[in-house]
Write a structure and sequence with these properties.
heterodimer, A: 234 residues, alpha/beta, Rossmann fold, OB fold (Dihydrolipoamide Acetyltransferase, E2P), five-stranded parallel beta sheet, five-stranded antiparallel beta sheet, 7 helices, 15 strands, B: 372 residues, alpha+beta, Heat Shock Protein 90, 2 domains, six-stranded mixed beta sheet, two-stranded antiparallel ribbon, 10 helices, 8 strands, rod-shaped
Chain lengths: 234, 372
Amino acid sequence: MRALLIDDEPLARRELRRLLSSHAWIQIVGEAGNIDEAQAGIEAHSPALIFLDIQMPGGTGFDLLERLDRPPRVIFTTAYDHYAVKAFEVSALDYLLKPVEPERLAIALEKIRRSTSASGQGANMPLEQLFVRDGPRCWFVPLREVSVFSAEGNYVRLEWGRERPLLGRSLTALESKLDSRRFFRANRQQILNLEHIQEVELGSGGRLYVHLRDGREIEISRRQARQFRATMGA
Amino acid sequence: MISDKTASLVHAPSRQLPNSRVRQLAYWGLQLLGWGFHFWAQASGEVVFAAVPWSKAGTLWGGVYFANVALTDLLRRVAKRNAWLEQRPGALFFRVFVGLLLVSLASFLITTWISQLVYGTPVAPIMGTFYGKLSARGQLINQFISCLLFDVMWVAIYFGLAIQRHRHRTELAHVQLGKALQAAELRLLQAQLNPHFLFNSLNSLRALIQDEPARAQQTVTHLARSLRYTLQANDEHLVTLAHELEMVDDYLALESLRLADRLQIARDIAPDALQERVPRMLIQTLVENAIKHGIARLRPGGTLGITARLASGELLVTVSNSRPMDLTPDAGGGVGLKNSAERLRLLFGSRATLHLDLSIAGQATAEVRIPA
């Protein structure tokens, strides 16, 4: 598995590199000392895993995740910011406290190894999860659990269970990244998750009304209705 | 954004007791009532024993009444303005004694003058009834002694109460000062035991152990010395600048390990300043702020400057650093700087100052002045 080390302290990177040397299946493809270098490194090497420090000059680890379209798997390494990592409400990620204990590292890597076979986020695969930060809280949101994406100005509101976090991208930009077999542009304002549909109701003038499992009702615009029928019929 | 580019961190204490108004009223109540009693005793005595009409006795002693109220109040104002209570006991006694004589003399002259106007004789008739057998000069002397007696009573009551209250307040202030200083030092200790710094240092150390054991050993020494200095924060309030700078060097050695070539250090310390005494951890706090809020946040790092020199009876220490151009709320350093300012105020009052100058973009300079 390809991994990138991101930490502003050279000695911390050296230490992590040595600790990882006993895990031969982890291949370190690069190091970064700040989030700009990290972004470049991730784009150049597309690692499957990053070790990410939180406090760095020029931006935090969270800032980096927000910039990435497809964040790799993340293991946070932190001296004393684990409370920040715990701010993740739902997360598939882990954190290690510095100085890193070899046993804890082994456990974290084992977790990664077991889960990667299930979900790979390759560049050509559709997006599976999104990093979302709304105020002090942040999440890795599994997209299959989101019922509706609604445009709010230049942002997108996610309807995700009880949470309604705001994502800092436009609806159109998001649409191009989503799996078109699962997500459908219902109207100018909304994208809905086809797997969350409970019932479709025919309205007057050829309009369609979709009832979702969470009780929401979405109107399919007349322009999209034909394509909706085609998608659902297929 | 910070609109006031130079933040003054040391404020003069301005505490007005909430019961000051009550004391003001009590003073005037006693003042008017006390001299009123004097008026009543003298005037009624004069009417009864010297058989003069009320109009004349009332005019004389009414005039004297206002003179006494004004004169003794003047004495109080002079004592307050010149902070007589802050003087040593001998000096205080001398001032009160001279003030008493002057007030009594003025009171006597006014009594004599009004008596001359009202009765055509300098000695008030009541004096004549008591000291009729004495000569005119003897009666005048007794008129002066009578004035003096009442002013002695006034001085005894007023300064007696004032001295007692002042002593009580001084003791209280002393206790409060000690407590505030302790609290400030405790907060400093908590802030200094910066866990982020500590665990990052330990992590660096772990990296060094195998590759560079000699450097690892040095690092343990720096870390141990730095921790010990921090933990002893409440041993002594003041240390020599030389000692403080030694500890700053230990701390900087650890930061250099973490920041590597991102941290440049420039020192300019005048040798004659080294034996001056500074609050323990003061410069270290400023240096730590400079790194945390300035250099560590800059990707290419920056330069930390420390200067110290003696100038016109003051020790002047500056700690300057590069900082990010964007002024985030914590650019002014937060708790650490406020705490340092508070400790300076508690130790030196208004004679020490701490300023953080952010007027130059990309640069921050903390400047401390301590009486040498």
